[in-house]
Structures are given as structure tokens and as C-alpha cells.
Design a protein that fits this description.
This protein has 226 residues and is an alpha+beta fold. A hairpin with a 3-residue loop joins strand 6 and strand 7. The protein folds into two domains: 90 residues, no CATH class; 99 residues, no CATH class. The strands form three sheets. It has a five-stranded antiparallel β-sheet. It has a four-stranded antiparallel β-sheet with strand order 1-2-3-4. Bound molecules: zinc ion. Zinc ion (ZN) binds next to loops. Keywords: Membrane, Transmembrane, Transmembrane helix.
Amino acid sequence: MIPAGTSTKNLKQAPFSGITCANCQSENNIISVSASYLHIIWIPLFPYRKTMGIVCSNCKHVVRIYETSEEVREMAKQLKATVKPPWYLFLGSIILTLIIGLLVVQSTSRKNKYSAYLENPQVNDIYALRNAYETPENKYELWKVINVKEDSIDMSVSIFKYRYIPNQLKPEDLFFDNYITYHKNTMLEFLKNGTIAKVSRGMTIVKGNSTESIPDSTNIDGDYSK
Ligand SMILES: [Zn+2]
């Protein structure tokens, strides 16, 4: 479990006059303003409440603000309003915002790269397509480019379906002999609507311990052992 909770930080302490201590009749009091904040993994996320307290500096008797005069309450309220929580009480929110921003930038540049690949398809490019209606273990299938015509692409569909998009192909990751043909614009539309989840170029095939590039499309017969 992620450790999260609330904590309190003292923001300001200042002498405060105008009240006579009910306990020792001293007129020297200290007003303090604190912020309660939410933290996660001990990093302050954001402050959510400001509180204040007045204590007699002589005998530490706590003054109940609601028992003081309206004038004193107004003074205390104004003082409380001037105290601003320091930036580091927002540190967690700042970090989260940066992370989200970074993820958005990354995802945008990835999509830009994918659409550049789709606009200029090359033989052996691999497209991973997501099927939302399939069971999780059959969520993805691969389409391999076997031929590029002017505006359309011929692709062989993978025999297997995948739970995760593979980063490498194994010899047993075969493709059907027949192929489907789509217009480039349709493929770009598939990327836009999320059907194409990944476009890979130069994907390698792992054979035991050695790695080699996808064989030339001239002998596409779904058999890499040749
Ligand atoms: Zn006192």
C-alpha cells in the first residue's frame, strides 16, 4: 500500500496583543497559523486547510478565538489570510503535473512516429492491432506489411493473437499466407481511433540466442526456418 495521509505544518508564529489571558492576566500572546496538507509517500501533495491558534506566551493557556471580541477575531482572521502556504506543500502536485505532461509529450511523439511510418510504409513493418472485443489473452494481433502499392498496403495477419504487444518475434510467430489490402488513409484512421496500438519497424526475430532481421518478403510463406 502507498503510504498516504495528512499532516500539519506550522507556517507562522507572531506576537499578538489585544487579549488578556484568562489564566494569568498576561497580555502577551502568540498567534500561530498552520496548514493541514495531504501527503503521499511522505511528499506533500497540497494543503487543504489553514488553522490558527492563540496561546498565552506566559502560561501557555490556549485562547479560544470564538470567546474573544469581534475586533480580535477580525484581526486574527486578517493575519491568517496573509499567511500563504509555501510552494513545497504543493511539491507532490507539481511532480504529478510534470509526470503527466511528460507522458502526454511521449505519447504524442510516439503517435507522430507511427503516423510517419504509416504514411511511408515499408515491407516488414509490423502493426499491432487492438481488438477491444477479444478476451485479454487475445487482445492483439499483428499485421505484417508484405507489399506496398501506390496508396495501399498488403498485409499478412499473424496466426497467433497476443495478450501483450511483442517487442520481438520468435520463429513460431507465423503469419498467414494470404493477405489483406487497405488504403493508407484507412490505416491512418485505425491509428487515430486506437485500433492500431503500435507500429514497429526493423523488428527482430529471436532464434535461440541469435537475433536476425525479418527475412525478405520475397519468401513470405510464414516459415522463418528456411
Ligand atoms: Zn497566561
